[in-house]
Amino acid sequence: MQGKRVELFGDGSFLRAVRLACRHDPDEFAEALSRELGWPVPTAVLLAWETGKSLPPPAVLRAARTLAEARRPAGILAASRMVPTWEAGFAPAPDDVVAAALMLAPSDVQAIVRSSDDAKLDPMDRRRFLLAVVGLVTGLEPWERLSFALRHPGRVDQATVDQLEAITIALEGLEPVADPRALLDPVTRLLNALATLLASPLRPTVRRELSSLAGEAAGIAGRLRWIMDDDLGATAYYETGMEAAREAGDAALGAYLVGKAACKPFYREDPAGRLRRLEGALGFTPAHASPRTGAWLAMLEAEAHALMADSTACSRALDRATSALDTAGTFQGERRPRVDFFDAAWLTGQRGACLGKIGKTAEARDALTASIDAQGAAPTKQRTWLLAMLAGTYAHDGEPEEACRYGSMTLSSAVTLGSKADFGLVDGLLHDLSNWRLHPAVQTLDDELRQAGATN
């Protein structure tokens, strides 16, 4: 990439990424640049730089670097290395731009990954982007030490195990916001590396730790396959992950993977089967789970009861989920898998979904709306699902226009995230609206779904 301009991660993209990392809107960032430079930067000029309509001068790039340094000192070295390249009239490698912009903070990773620009990346750009993200979230050069360990498998040290754990956590944290087609590549690389290491002689403690990591990585891969509407592939990964959990003696991981495996696409949902799996049919039970995982499993049980129209059992399970989550505390110091997607806001949304399934639509909408507001405006897979559940409450009440409005938002989010399985949520909504199939809003949503299916 050295020696030519790169459209995707050019000069303006660096400014925009630093702005997002600093959590500034364009007006705030233009003002911050003006203070740093000592001369005014109009917001319109900043936006022209960010969108590539004009190129920022080197002084502006240095000012942005300084602003970034004040926010993330640990990440500025990469930015410092890039500025001379820009001043020479060249564009740095895209990964270097990403590296400088993310500043080693997981929250900043989510700000960048969730941005609307990410929807425009092709699969190769997404993979390169995500690999850069993984290195920066962990604060490591992720593949160098691992490469040495693979060449010398008998010499796997604790630092290598710690690095692999950090990479696993980083990849898991990206699952709610990243395109599964892009994320599957680095996850598969991680799994292949772990499999290679496990095929060699290892100390028992190292083997157990690597087996546990392999089980969790298999869980990530299974979830990605599920999102890509490959239920058989997902099941194979989950079963492999549970086998690795048994090898590691990690029952908490096994219980976590049971929760993953218990869920099926809506058009193949089997609530009675889910309850059997949650009760121990796969060899692990909620009693094996960490507190937060236990709360999540109770919520999955509540949803199964709601699907079976058993409101009493549903309420009991939701109460258990609430109680378990209250005692789980913060994520600080929590062992893997941390289930950090499951918090009070998500439980509120799940409660709303259950209420909707048992016909309490007014209460359901209050809960779902509160959870959606807590999620923020950026697309995530959780927000997509919540929007679909909210749309379903309006379909239940015979309000096709509102149902289709939220259905269209669901579809837009699913397309942005590359979540093909969530297209099924919209298809299910249209099935629920079959009595209004001639309504203009329903016909428009049906056309949108057909177009999305043809182009994704």
Structural write-up:
With 456 residues, the protein is mainly α. It folds into three domains: 94 residues; 135 residues; 97 residues. Helix content is 71%, strand content 0%. The protein has 23 helices and no strands. The longest helix is centred in the middle third of the chain and has 24 residues. It starts with 10 loop residues before the first helix and ends with a helix. The N terminus is likely disordered.
- Name the average pLDDT: 78
Label the overall shape: globular
- Strand share of the residues? under 5%
| Secondary-structure content class | mainly alpha
Helix content: over 70%
- Tell me how many strands there are: 0
Low-confidence stretches: 1-10, 72-146
* Radius of gyration, taken over Cα atoms and rounded to an integer in Å: 24 Å
Query: What count of structural domains?
Result: 3
Short description:
With 456 residues, the protein is an all-alpha fold. The chain has 23 helices and no strands. The model is unreliable at 1-10 and 72-146 (pLDDT under 50).
